[in-house]
Amino acid sequence: MIHKLLTEFIGTFFLVFTVGMVVPHAGEANVIAPLAIGSALMVMVYAGGHVSGGHYNPAVSLAVLLRGRMSANEIVPYIVIQAAAGGVAGLTAVWMGGYENTPMTIVSPLKALTAEFLFTFALCYVVLNVATSKNTAGNSNYGLAIGFTVMVGAFAVGGVSGGAFNPAVAVGVAAMKLVAVADIWIHLVADFAGGAVAALVFRFNNPDDR
After folding, report:
1. For residue 206, what are the CA distances in angstroms to 4, 82, 119, 132, 133?
2. Given a cut of 80, is residue 25 above it in pLDDT?
């Protein structure tokens, strides 16, 4: 278990640290940030997927649990270590970046909830299908598919919700003051809901894959 948790900490740390180091410098033409964030997730999934599953995201861990590919006694340690890594990464980015951030204004909580739900669902749906399905076992493109899903989501709705799609990222961006602490509930509710629904859809579509 210690190897899995260490792997989850490292992967989540570098994902959130990348967010903190690229988003404040992205400017209005926010092209580099989604590419860098999606790539960071991709390489960390490839690096740690064989050890811990490469979740780096409490919503993904919940989806994998509900899908039936994770034991119940692992879910709490996974979520705790992922959230801790997000917080440490956020504080490290603030210290290393040396800048003060103004939290983004979420104009419509309902739209932000919808955006976070949709792309967290998409992320977890992709993870379950490319990394846990018996029909795609042994494929070599799972990391690319997962990273690109986050990249697409960041391009599509980053300006609406902040584009976290991950409660651990939400913890980190709150520590970095990229989003207001008072708005974190949006990410927590929507992201966990997206992961749960993705698991239900996967189970419905794959009744013989348990």
Report:
1. 27, 28, 21, 11, 9
2. no
Residue 13 has pLDDT above 60, yes or no: yes
End-to-end distance of the chain based on CA atoms, in angstroms? 23
Residue 210 in any domain: the answer is no
Q: How many helices (H) and strands (E) does the chain have?
A: 8, 0
Residue 206 to residue 98: CA distance in whole angstroms: 48
| 64, part of any domain | yes
CB 177 within 8 A of CB 100: yes
The phi, psi pair for 20, rounded to 5°, reads -70, -25
pTM over 0.90: yes
Q: Per-residue pLDDT averaged across 96-102, rounded?
A: 78
**Lowest-pLDDT range of 23-27, 79-83, 163-167:** 23-27
Q: Which residue has the tokens 């103004």?
A: 102
How far, in Å, CA of 14 to CA of 128, rounded? 22
Grouping H, G, I as helix, E, B as strand and the rest as coil, residue 207 is coil
The residue among 33, 69, 4, 67 whose CA lies nearest residue 169 is 33
Domain count, the chain: 1
Residue 69 within a domain: yes
